[in-house]
C-alpha cells in the first residue's frame, strides 16, 4: 500500500450499533450448553420457540426468552444491508434456520452454531452460512426479489417477492444421508406492471403450499388485487390460483390458521357437493383496510368484514393495522392486531353453530402499547413488541381479554357496520411490562459531555440519556473514616464463604473492623493480638489453613485462629534488622516475601503437609541492590514467580520453582521502564501469566510472562494521568454475569437463605471457581481511577464509573458478604470514605457504553431511578409511558462545566420543552420547580446558544413558523446540598419568514441563513437586528449545516450542492466564497478539523472529508481579501462556465466512507481517555455512535490496512482452498461405472461468501455510492477476533511477517490507546 504524506488516513469503529430493529423472528436457534453434547444422540424433535432474533440493517442479535427475560446470547455484524429476514423449521432438524436477503443479491440460508475456541477456550455463538443462492445484481432495486420473504408453515418452500414484477419460489429439501439442507432452482411467478404491497403464507396443512399477496396493477388504473399463488409440489411449478379485486386502501395481509382444525367449516354448503371435496383446504387471509378488516378465502366463498374500534378522541383519524401476532391453542386461536394509534385488538374466528359452523369473526380491545414493527407471542406467556422508533418491550400476559368479551365490548361480522369507540387509557389491562430494551432511533442530536470517561449525551425519548464508556462500580453503602487512611485489606479463611475482617492502615496505626451478620463494627482492642498502634501496616493476608499474617514496617506477626474461628494468639513475631524497615511484601497461602529498605528480600515458606501453620525463613536472602518499591506473587496456594519493582525503573522476575533448585531465587527476566516503578502485580488469567506495572510518571504497563523461562513479552502501555500509578487486585470476578448484563441483579429477599435462585447462583459460582473461569481484574489508581482486565483476547483499560461525591478511589480490595455475594468490592476514596459495593457492568466490544436515564420531576409518572443497562426491569408493570416529546436539538454550552440544553418538540401538540442538565443532574426551572420549562405555541426547527455582545447566554430558537425567539438564560451553580436551577425569560421575537435548519454564533452576532443569504444578527431591544447580509453562490438554495473556524472561516452545507468555504472580511463585514466542491452532496452535518479540512455527512449515509490544498492556502493568505477576483484556479473557465467556477478554488476529497446511517452530529474531541491524538465522534439517525481516529504513522497505516485486506479476502481464500481440496479428493475417487464418484459425499460444502455471511463484497459495501477512500474499517478488522484459531492461522500463513499475536496486539492498541 502506498502511503502519501499529504493524505489523511482514518480508522473507523462503530462504538454503538444502530438500534432501528426492523426485522424480527422467533424460533429455537441454538441449544443450551449442557445439551449440545447429547444433541446428536437424540432424534430431532421440535422444541418450543423461545428464542428471539432481531436485526437492524447491519447486525443481528439473538435473545433467549425461556426464563421470562431478554437474555442476550450473541451479536453478529453483517457487512451488508439486510432487507428481509425470516425463520423456518426444516424436516429432521430440531433447530431453526434463518433466511436472509440483502443488498448482496443473494438468498442466504444460515443457522446459529456454538463454537469453543481452541486457543483460549472461549465459548461463543456464531452464524454459519449454509448457502448463498444468487438472486439478482447487488444493490437494492425494485426488481430484485429481496423485499419480502414468506416461509411455508412446514418449511417446504420459500416465497420471495420484489417490489415490482418478480416473484420466486424455492423448494427446500433435506438430504436423508447427511441431513443437510438443499434448495432447488427457483420457480418464477412474474407479473409485469404489478407492485407488491404485502405478502403472507397461508395455512394449508400438508397440501400444496399457498401464498397470498396484495398487488397494485399499474396498467389498470392502479387497481388493487388479492392474489393467491399455489406451488404444485408434484408438477414442480407455481401457479396463480385466484385473483380478486379489492378496495384500494388495502395495506396489510396475514394468513389465518386452517379453520377445519378448530371445527369451523371453510367451504360453502351450496357448492360443497358439486365442486369441492370435504377434505379440500380453503385457506383464509385477513386483510387490513382503512377503518376495517376483511377475512377472505381463496375460493371466494366468504367476505367477513368488521370495523376497527377507534378512540373517542380520534374519530376522524383513519385507522389501519400495522402489526400482528398469532397464538394457537389446542382448541382455539386468536390474533393480536395493532393499529396505527398503538391500540391492540384481539381478533377471533368462531363457528356460527346455527349456520352449519360457518366462520364468523370478532374484534375487541385488548391493550395499548407503543407502535411496533412486529409482535411475537411466546409459548411461556410473554409478548415481545419490536419497535423501530420506540423502545422495545417484553410483556407478560396477565389475562387474555375475557373481561372485554364478557362486558359486550366486541364487534362481530354479524354486524359489519357497527362501530366501537374506546376510552384512551395509560394503564395496561391485560399485559404487564417485564423488561425494556432501549432504542436510540431516531437520534436527531447529541453531544459529548466529557472525554474521560467518554460520555455521550442523547435523548431519543422523553428523558435525557447518558452513554458512558466505563466500568460500573455501584456503591451499596459508604461511611466517612478518620482522615489519613492509606490502604485496605479484607481477610477470610480458605474454608469460609464470606470475608470476616477488614483492615484499614494509617500512617501510625491500624483499624480492624469485624464483618458479621450484615453489619460492620470495630474489633475490640482487648486481647487483640494484632499490631494496632505505633506502626503502619504494609500487608495483611490469610496464610496457611487458619492464620493471618500482618506485615508492618517494623514487625511481622502471624495470628492463629482456633477451632471455633476465633482470634487465638500470636504464633510468630519477626523483626527486621535495626534501622531497616519493611517497604513491601507479597503473600500466597503458603509463601511470604518481604522487601526491606536495604534492598534485601526475606523469603518464608510453609510446609503444606504439616497440620500446624509454621513459617520457615530461608537463611539466604535475596540482594536486589536497588530500592524496592513493590513486590508481587501469583495469588493461590503457591507461586513459582516473584516480581520486584524498584526505583531504578526495573522489574525483576525471580524464580520460586521448588522443582528447580539451580534457578531458585535467581533472576530470570528483567524489564526496564522509562520511569521508576511505583507498583507491580502478577496475576494469572486464561492460562497466561501477566505482569502489570504502574510507573511514577502516570504510565501503566501490561505484559505477559513466559511460564517456562519467565521471559517478559507483549508489552502494552497507556497513560492514565499525571500522578503515580498504584494497582489494586480484584481476583474473584465472575465475568459471565457482567458480560451478559446480569451483574446488577440484586436479591430481593436477602433474608431468605433458602432462596432457590441464590443457591443455584452460589453453586454456579463454585463450579466456575473450580473450572477456573473466575477472572482477575486490576483497579489502577492515578489522577483518575481505571480498571484493567482481559476479555475476548483483548486488554481493556477503562475508567471507573462511581457515582459518589468523590469518584476517585485510592485503594480497592475484594469483598464478599451475605448481601454482596458476587463481584463485591471494598474501597477507600480520595476523601477518606469507606465504600462497599459491587461491579455491575463492564465494557466489551459488543457493549462499549453503559447507559442510564435521568428522571424528570413534574412528569405524569412518578419519578423513579432508571437501571443502567440496555435491558431494564420495570418496577411498575401495569403502567407504560409513551413518549410525548421528541428531542430536536441538544446544545452544549461552551465554557460551562457540563451544561447541556435539550430542546424538544411535542409529538401531538404545538409546544416546545426545554430541559437543562449540569453534569448528571437535571436543573429545575425557577418558575415551576419542575425539571423542564414549556414554551407554548412554538415548534422548534433548530436552536443555538450565543452571548451576542454581553456576558449572558441567550437561547435562540428558530420555529417552523418563520420566527426567531430569543430567551435570556440564567443558570445557578450547583453547590453542596443545593440542586442546580435555570430560568428562561423571553426577550423578544423576530420575524424572518423562512424556515431555517442551521444557525451558529459568529463573533458577537448570530449567523442565520435566510433565503440563500448569510445574515448576521445583532441583539436589539425589541428584536434581532441585521448587521450584515452576505450573498452566497447562486447554486446554494437550501442551507442545512454550518460550521465555523475561530471566527474566521465558515463552511456552508447545502441540501444538494455540497460544501462551500467562505472567508470573513472584517473590513467589509461580509463573507466571501473561496472554494466549493466538485460534486453534489446532500449535506446533513459539518465540522472543521483544521482551518483547511472539513468533515461532513450526507443523507445517503456517507462520511467524507474535504480539504483546501496548501498551495491555495498560500495564495489566499497573501491575496485575501483585496485580490480575491484574481484568485482563480482555472481562469479560462471563469468566463466560459461561470456555473462551474462560482468559487476561485475547488475542495479536494480526502476521505470517503459509507456508514449505513445518516450522520446527524459530528464532534471533534482533542483526546479520548487521555489518548495521544484527537478523535471524531459521530452520531447517526438510527442510533449509531461511531468514532474516526486519525492514523499518524506509516507503519500503523500499513499494518491495519493489511489486516483489513486479509479479512476482506477471506471469502475467496477459503473458497479456493476448498475447491483445491475437493479437486484432490475427486482425483482419488474411483469411478463406479455409472458416471458417479463413490466418495462424492465427502466433498466439503462451504458456500461461496460464507465468511461474509451473505456474500457481500466489502469494498462495494463501504463504497456504496462512491469508492471508499483512505478509511480503514475497524469493525471488519475486529471480526478477525471472532474467527477460530484454525481460520486465523490459515489466513495468516501466506502473509509475510504477519502473525496472529501481532494482529491481535495491533487491534487491541487502537481500542486501548485511542478510544
From TrEMBL:
Region (Disordered): 744-765, 858-878
Start and end residues of each RSE1/DDB1/CPSF1 C-terminal domain: 960-1281
Assigned keywords, A-Z: mRNA processing, Nucleus
Localisation per UniProt entry: Nucleus
Gene3D superfamilies: YVTN repeat-like/Quinoprotein amine dehydrogenase (2.130.10.10)
GO cellular component: nucleus
Compositionally biased spans, kind Acidic residues: 744-757, 860-877
Name of the protein in question: Cleavage/polyadenylation specificity factor A subunit N-terminal domain-containing protein
Organismal lineage: Eukaryota, Fungi, Dikarya, Ascomycota, Saccharomycotina
Amino acid at each position: 500500500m502506498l502511503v502519501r504524506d499529504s493524505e489523511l488516513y482514518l480508522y473507523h469503529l462503530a462504538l454503538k450499533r444502530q438500534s432501528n430493529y426492523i426485522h424480527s423472528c422467533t424460533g429455537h436457534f441454538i441449544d443450551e450448553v449442557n445439551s449440545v453434547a447429547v444433541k446428536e444422540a437424540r432424534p430431532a424433535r421440535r422444541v418450543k420457540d423461545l428464542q428471539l432474533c432481531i436485526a437492524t440493517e447491519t447486525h443481528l442479535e439473538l435473545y433467549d426468552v425461556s426464563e421470562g427475560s431478554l437474555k442476550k446470547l450473541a451479536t453478529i455484524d453483517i457487512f451488508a444491508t439486510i432487507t428481509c429476514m425470516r425463520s423456518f423449521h426444516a424436516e429432521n432438524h430440531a433447530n431453526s434456520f434463518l433466511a436472509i436477503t440483502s443488498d448482496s443479491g443473494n438468498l442466504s440460508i444460515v443457522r446459529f452454531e456454538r463454537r469453543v475456541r481452541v486457543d483460549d477456550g472461549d465459548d461463543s455463538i456464531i452464524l454459519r452460512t449454509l448457502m448463498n443462492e444468487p438472486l439478482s445484481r447487488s444493490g437494492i432495486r425494485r426488481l430484485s426479489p429481496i423485499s419480502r420473504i414468506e416461509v411455508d408453515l412446514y418449511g417446504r418452500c420459500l416465497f420471495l417477492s420484489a417490489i415490482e414484477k418478480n416473484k420466486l419460489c424455492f423448494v427446500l429439501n433435506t438430504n436423508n444421508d447427511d441431513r443437510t439442507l438443499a434448495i432447488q432452482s427457483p420457480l418464477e411467478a412474474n407479473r409485469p406492471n404489478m407492485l407488491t404491497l404485502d405478502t403472507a403464507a397461508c395455512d394449508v396443512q400438508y397440501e400444496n403450499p399457498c401464498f397470498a399477496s396484495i398487488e397494485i396493477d399499474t396498467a389498470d388504473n392502479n387497481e388493487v388485487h388479492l392474489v393467491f399463488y399455489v406451488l404444485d409440489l408434484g408438477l414442480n411449478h407455481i401457479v396463480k390460483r385466484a385473483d380478486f379485486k379489492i378496495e384500494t386502501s388495502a395495506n396489510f395481509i396475514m394468513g389465518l390458521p386452517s379453520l377445519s382444525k378448530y371445527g369451523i367449516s371453510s367451504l360453502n354448503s351450496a357448492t360443497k357437493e358439486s365442486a369441492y371435496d370435504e377434505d379440500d383446504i380453503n385457506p383464509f387471509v385477513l386483510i387490513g383496510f382503512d377503518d376495517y378488516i376483511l377475512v377472505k378465502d381463496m375460493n371466494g366463498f366468504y367476505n367477513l368484514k368488521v370495523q376497527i374500534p377507534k378512540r373517542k378522541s380520534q374519530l376522524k383519524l383513519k385507522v389501519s393495522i400495522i402489526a400482528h401476532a398469532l397464538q394457537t391453542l389446542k382448541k382455539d386461536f386468536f390474533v393480536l392486531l395493532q393499529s396505527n394509534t398503538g391500540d391492540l385488538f384481539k381478533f377471533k374466528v368462531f363457528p356460527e353453530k346455527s349456520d352449519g359452523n360457518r366462520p364468523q369473526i370478532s374484534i375487541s380491545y385488548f391493550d395499548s402499547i407503543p407502535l411496533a414493527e412486529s409482535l411475537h407471542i411466546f409459548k411461556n406467556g410473554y409478548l415481545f413488541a419490536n419497535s423501530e422508533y420506540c423502545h422495545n418491550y417484553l410483556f407478560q400476559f396477565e389475562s387474555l381479554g375475557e373481561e372485554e368479551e364478557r362486558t359486550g365490548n366486541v364487534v362481530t361480522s354479524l354486524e359489519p357496520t357497527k362501530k366501537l369507540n374506546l376510552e384512551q387509557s395509560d394503564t395496561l389491562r391485560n399485559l404487564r411490562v417485564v423488561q425494556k430494551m432501549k432504542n436510540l432511533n431516531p437520534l436527531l442530536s447529541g453531544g459529548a459531555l466529557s472525554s474521560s470517561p467518554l460520555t455521550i449525551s442523547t435523548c431519543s425519548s422523553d428523558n435525557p440519556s447518558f452513554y458512558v464508556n466505563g466500568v460500573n462500580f455501584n456503591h451499596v453503602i459508604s461511611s466517612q473514616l478518620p482522615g489519613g487512611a492509606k490502604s485496605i485489606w479484607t481477610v477470610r479463611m480458605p474454608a469460609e464463604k464470606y470475608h470476616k475482617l477488614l483492615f484499614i492502615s494509617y500512617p501510625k496505626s491500624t483499624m480492624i473492623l469485624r464483618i458479621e451478620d450484615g453489619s460492620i463494627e470495630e474489633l475490640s482492642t482487648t486481647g487483640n493480638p494484632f499490631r494496632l498502634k505505633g506502626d503502619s501496616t504494609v500487608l495483611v493476608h490469610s496464610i496457611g489453613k487458619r492464620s493471618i499474617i500482618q506485615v508492618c514496617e517494623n514487625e511481622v506477626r502471624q495470628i492463629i485462629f482456633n477451632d471455633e474461628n476465633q482470634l487465638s494468639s500470636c504464633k510468630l513475631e519477626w523483626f527486621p534488622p535495626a534501622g531497616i524497615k519493611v517497604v513491601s511484601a507479597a503473600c500466597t497461602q503458603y509463601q511470604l516475601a518481604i522487601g526491606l529498605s536495604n534492598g534485601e528480600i526475606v523469603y518464608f515458606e510453609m510446609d503444606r503437609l504439616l497440620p500446624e501453620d509454621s513459617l520457615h525463613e530461608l537463611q539466604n536472602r535475596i540482594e536486589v541492590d536497588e530500592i524496592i518499591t513493590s513486590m508481587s506473587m501469583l495469588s493461590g496456594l503457591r507461586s513459582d514467580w516473584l516480581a520486584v519493582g524498584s526505583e531504578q525503573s526495573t522489574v525483576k522476575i525471580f524464580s520460586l520453582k521448588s522443582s528447580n533448585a539451580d534457578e531458585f531465587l535467581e533472576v530470570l527476566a528483567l524489564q526496564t521502564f522509562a520511569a521508576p516503578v511505583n507498583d507491580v502485580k502478577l496475576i494469572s488469567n486464561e492460562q497466561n501469566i501477566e505482569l502489570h506495572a504502574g510507573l511514577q510518571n502516570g504510565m501503566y504497563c501490561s505484559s505477559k510472562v513466559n511460564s517456562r523461562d519467565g521471559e517478559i513479552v507483549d508489552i502494552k502501555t497507556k497513560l492514565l494521568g499525571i500522578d503515580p500509578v498504584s494497582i489494586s487486585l480484584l481476583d474473584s470476578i465472575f465475568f459471565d454475569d457482567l458480560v451478559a448484563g446480569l451483574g446488577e441483579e440484586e436479591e430481593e429477599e436477602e433474608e431468605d437463605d433458602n432462596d432457590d435462585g441464590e443457591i443455584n447462583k452460589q453453586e454456579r459460582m463454585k463450579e466456575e471457581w473450580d473450572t477456573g473461569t473466575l477472572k482477575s481484574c486490576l483497579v489502577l489508581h492515578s489522577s483518575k481511577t481505571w480498571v484493567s482486565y482481559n476479555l475476548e483476547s483483548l486488554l481493556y483499560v477503562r475508567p471507573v464509573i462511581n457515582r459518589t461525591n468523590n469518584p476517585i478511589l485510592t485503594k480497592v480490595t475484594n469483598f464478599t458478604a451475605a448481601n454482596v455475594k458476587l463481584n463485591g468490592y471494598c474501597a477507600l476514596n480520595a476523601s477518606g470514605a469507606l465504600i462497599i459495593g459491587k461491579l455491575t457492568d463492564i465494557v466489551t466490544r459488543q457493549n462499549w457504553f453503559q447507559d442510564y436515564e435521568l428522571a424528570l420531576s413534574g412528569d405524569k409518572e412518578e419519578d423513579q431511578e432508571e437501571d443502567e443497562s440496555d435491558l431494564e426491569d420495570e418496577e411498575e408493570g401495569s403502567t407504560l409511558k409513551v413518549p410525548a416529546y421528541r428531542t430536536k436539538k441538544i446544545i452544549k454550552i461552551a465554557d460551562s462545566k457540563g451544561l447541556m440544553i435539550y430542546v424538544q418538540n411535542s409529538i401531538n401538540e404545538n409546544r416546545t420543552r426545554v430541559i437543562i442538565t449540569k453534569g448528571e443532574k437535571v436543573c429545575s426551572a425557577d418558575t415551576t420547580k419542575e425539571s423542564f420549562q414549556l414554551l407554548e405555541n412554538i415548534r422548534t426547527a433548530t436552536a443555538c446558544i450565543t452571548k451576542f455582545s454581553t456576558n449572558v447566554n441567550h437561547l435562540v430558537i428558530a420555529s417552523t413558523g418563520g420566527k426567531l425567539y430569543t430567551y435570556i438564560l440564567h443558570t445557578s451553580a450547583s453547590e453542596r446540598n443545593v440542586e442546580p436551577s435555570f430560568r428562561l425569560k423571553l426577550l423578544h421575537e423576530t420575524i424572518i419568514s423562512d424556515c431555517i435548519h442551521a444557525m451558529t454564533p459568529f463573533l458577537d452576532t448570530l449567523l442565520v441563513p435566510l433565503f440563500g443569504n448569510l445574515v448576521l444578527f445583532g441583539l436589539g431591544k425589541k428584536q434581532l437586528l441585521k448587521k450584515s447580509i452576505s450573498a452566497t453562490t447562486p447554486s446554494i438554495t437550501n442551507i442545512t449545516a454550518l460550521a465555523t473556524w475561530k471566527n474566521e472561516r465558515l463552511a456552508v452545507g447545502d441540501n444538494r450542492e455540497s460544501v462551500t468555504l467562505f472567508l470573513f472580511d472584517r473590513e467589509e463585514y461580509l463573507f466571501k466564497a473561496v472554494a466549493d466542491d466538485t460534486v453534489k452532496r446532500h449535506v446533513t452535518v459539518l465540522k472543521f478539523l483544521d482551518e483547511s479540512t472539513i468533515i461532513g455527512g450526507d443523507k445517503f449515509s456517507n462520511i467524507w472529508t474535504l480539504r483546501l490544498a496548501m498551495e491555495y492556502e498560500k495564495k489566499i493568505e497573501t491575496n485575501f481579501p483585496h485580490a480575491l477576483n484574481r484568485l482563480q484556479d482555472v481562469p479560462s473557465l471563469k468566463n466560459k462556465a461561470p456555473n462551474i467556477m462560482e468559487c476561485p478554488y475547488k475542495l479536494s476529497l480526502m476521505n470517503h466512507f459509507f456508514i449505513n446511517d445518516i450522520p446527524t452530529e459530528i464532534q471533534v474531541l482533542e483526546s479520548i481517555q487521555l489518548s495521544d491524538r484527537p478523535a471524531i465522534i459521530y452520531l447517526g439517525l438510527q442510533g449509531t455512535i461511531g468514532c474516526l481516529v486519525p492514523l499518524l504513522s506509516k507503519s500503523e497505516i500499513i499494518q491495519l490496512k493489511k489486516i483489513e485486506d486479509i479479512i476482506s479476502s477471506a471469502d475467496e481464500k477459503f473458497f479456493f482452498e476448498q475447491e483445491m481440496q475437493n479437486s484432490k479428493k475427486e482425483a482419488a475417487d474411483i469411478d463406479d461405472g455409472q458416471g458417479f464418484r463413490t466418495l462424492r459425499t465427502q466433498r466439503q460444502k462451504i458456500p461461496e461468501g460464507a465468511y461474509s455471511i451473505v456474500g457481500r463484497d466489502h469494498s462495494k459495501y463501504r463504497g456504496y455510492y462512491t469508492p471508499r477512500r483512505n478509511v480503514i474499517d475497524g469493525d471488519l478488522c475486529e471480526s478477525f477476533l471472532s474467527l477460530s484459531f484454525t481460520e486465523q492461522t490459515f489466513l495468516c500463513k501466506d502473509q509475510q511477517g504477519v502473525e496472529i499475536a501481532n494482529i491481535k496486539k495491533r487491534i487491541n492498541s487502537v481500542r486501548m490507546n485511542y478510544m
